[in-house]
Amino acid sequence: MKNIHIRYATLLLFMLLAIPASLSAQTALKQKLSKISAIKEVRPLETSEFAEKYVTYFVQPLDHHHPERGSFRQRIIVSHVGFDRPTVIVTEGYGAAYALRPKYREELSKLLNANMIFVEYRYFLESTPEPKDWQYLTAENSADDLHAVTTAFKNIYPGKWIATGISKGGQTTLLYRTFYPDDVDISVPYVAPLCYGVEDGRHEPFLHNVSTAENRKKIENFQLEVLKRKATLLPRFEKYCAEKKYSFNAPIEEIYDYSVLEYSFALWQWGTPISSIPATTASDDDIFKHLLAISEPGYFTPNSPNASFFVQAARELGYYGYDIEPFKEYLSIKSSKGYLHRLMLPEELKDMDFDKTLSKKITKLLKKNDPKMIFIYGQNDPWTAAGVTWLKNKKNIHVFIQPNGSHLARINTLPEKEKKEVMELINKWLE
Fold this sequence. Notes:
Keywords: Hydrolase, Protease, Signal
GO biological process, one term: proteolysis
Number of strands: 9
GO molecular function: dipeptidyl-peptidase activity
Number of domains: 2
Shape: globular
Organism: Bacteroides oleiciplenus YIT 12058
């Protein structure tokens, strides 16, 4: 009996010792978060990937050069491994909702067992100022946001820092490095375009040469077939848009045509198998269903979830155009030039001019400097047309292209040899 009491007492003591250790680890991070004056709210999140995870709200000036003009709350998700681990800052280009999921973990954070600071982009989801004054949605302000976050969190995580992002998030990684070259040790932009204009001009020739002539012909034949069947498919298209409650800045027939023009870009961007394209003899049902699966017309609504991105694309990030030549005979539009302004921008911004200052500033940084950067692209992704694949003979800037890859190209999708090279570079830089 005495032995049982001793064992019970020992077990109880062990449990009492173990519980404070766990709680103190949580408290240490929460205490540190509470000392960041810009953070006004901290809420715990479920996680299966990290020791702790919180959603926080960080107060940012609307205009970092004129803080007196007001502020907004930026959503930041903090995922903790250890104070002695490297930290990955995810420079998201859009909203952060998906990063709230318990199982979410960004690729580099997983590969390096690193902490993760996930920053929602201004003017998206919960990081949208009220009222929505478009003048403050600039690349420089977004870089200033990231600088403020990094500066604050370096008091918690003093080790090495890596910035990374995908697509527009990759553009953000790139522009962040341009405005603040010393904020992070390493930058890894995924599928990041560097466009020189609203209709950059390099995407259309890229689509004329991507993959094989046979594959390109199959895509073009499908687009032509959709246009040839306009008389029967347009009423169905109009009904679909009405059911979705879409509103457009152009007649429905033009939106139909633009959906067809967008098809080839979207198909290559997401790596849809060519084998999934219906034959030109397929039923109306199959043709229509496939078109919507690849090129959904909601993309062309001015109030889409991407509206803030379209504003930035027109202002300074750039975008792509369409080649209408092969389809002219069947189109209701005579030219697609200026479609972004006409179809997707808020009314008050339709006359906005494109400013080339940002692309020139980024290009100058990459040409004249050699920061530790790794670019990942997909060979067949149309955005690669505007990638920084022209960079040569740099010691620290490296470009990797996944063979036949799409906009889903990542470190883990690279061939084994290149994947190993990427990780050896990063681990060397982290030493």
